[in-house]
Amino acid sequence: MELQKTMQRSLRSEIQKRLKENGYTLSKLSELSGIGTGHLSEMLNSSPSRAITVNQLDAMATAFGHAPGWLYELYPEECLSEGKISRPRLVPYLVRCAEIGRKDCIKAVVSNLLENPKNISILFSVAEQLFQSGKQKESVFFYELVIDNEKDSYSDQFVMSQYRLFRAVQGTNTEENWKAVIRFDSYWKRLPENVQLDALLQLANVCFMMYRWKDVEKYADELRNLATIVYENELLRRTSPKANDLLKTERHLVVYYGQGFLLKAAALKKQRLYEEAKQYIQGYADLGWFEILDETGQQEVEKFRVWAKINSYTLDMMLGNYEILPECITFLEDHPGEIFPALVTIMECANKYGFCIDEVLERFSEYTSYTEDDLNGLSASRHFRFRYQKAIYELQRERFNIGINETLRSLALADKMNHYQDFKQCVSLFEEHRHHASNSQIIAYNKIIEGGTQTNESSVTLVSSSFGIL
């Protein structure tokens, strides 16, 4: 008998049931839900009945005092009927299910959709809507379905799914980031050129976080060459009487061109090839000659100018010219957004040449703090580098309590990023100075070693799309 009752349930019968239980007329339900009385009548009383959208179902759920997701298990009857699929209703429904966590409803529908390969495009549309609305984590399941079920590995939706999946899984865990690079590397050349540009920028940034300098160089060279080709093609296209708007890219075209030089310089600097790095800094120091510049492009050119100036200062300091520090500090005060990235390199220089920057650290102390929410992939890497170098700086000056606290912060960040080599360096630094540690510091150290700060997968955040200070 219970099974029979369940089988007899339908979306409209349940809504009618709630109307009766609450003593609502259609006018009252219209007042509470914001849905027109005429539309409600057509939905519930007409034959054939008017379709109910998922947003209207949510509105009725609120009117009846239910949480979002009410009757979602019955909603597929609005989308799937006699072998026909209503895409305009099904896609929003699956998007909404993903947003509120109704995995049971998603799985039930997906199993039916996959019976026909043509329906893979529906899953791709759901993934795209989630990704574009900032729900990258929720989009992963649908992109994986496309990849697993699309037989043509050169199709647009397959290749784009590979790219979106690469983007969506990026976070602070460097091991997982590298796995994503390996999976995606063989597909980026199949993307349209305008998407290839951003893919190369993302690949280079991920490799930068993992200290894979040769890979950064490789992707930077590819990015620079591709941006040059696209730029030249755009100039030719604009001379044609049939020219349309500028090629659509996620960032302004000048960003990809400039980042090709900047990333190359960054990789060379990390390999201590300072003079070679200087040559590539000149490649983005003055991009005012770039012909395709709107207001946004002009702003990007100015950013590159500032970055080139600061990076030139820090490279000079790495070469031993730390007398230039006051001039660099004055420049940074006019560009507060670049203070923290520059401090990372200034700290490295101070440790390398043994000069004091206490006054600099005091002046810019407000720029060096962070919260858990601040740590996306790139900023986590920067904060680790700063904390680790500051730990060395304080320990060299025998300020052991501060130095050990900074060592612990570095250790926790290395653990968060799942970066084994950094973690090992921090352990070595702590053990070297363990005899200066307090009991509370030793307890904190042991907790990190035992895995007390390891993050879970739900904390994943996207990697920044570009950076400026080497």
TrEMBL record:
User: Could you tell me which residue ranges the HTH cro/C1-type domain spans?
Assistant: 15-71
Q: Which SUPFAM superfamilies match?
A: lambda repressor-like DNA-binding domains (SSF47413), TPR-like (SSF48452)
Xref: InterPro entries: Cro/C1-type_HTH, Lambda_DNA-bd_dom_sf, TPR-like_helical_dom_sf
- Coiled-coil portions: none
Enumerate the Gene3D superfamilies for this protein: lambda repressor-like DNA-binding domains
Domain of life, per lineage = Bacteria
Give one Pfam hit by family name.
HTH_26
| Signal sequence, renumbered to the chain | none
Task: Cite a single GO MF annotation.
Answer: DNA binding
PROSITE patterns attached here? HTH_CROC1 (PS50943)
Q: What is this protein called?
A: XRE family transcriptional regulator
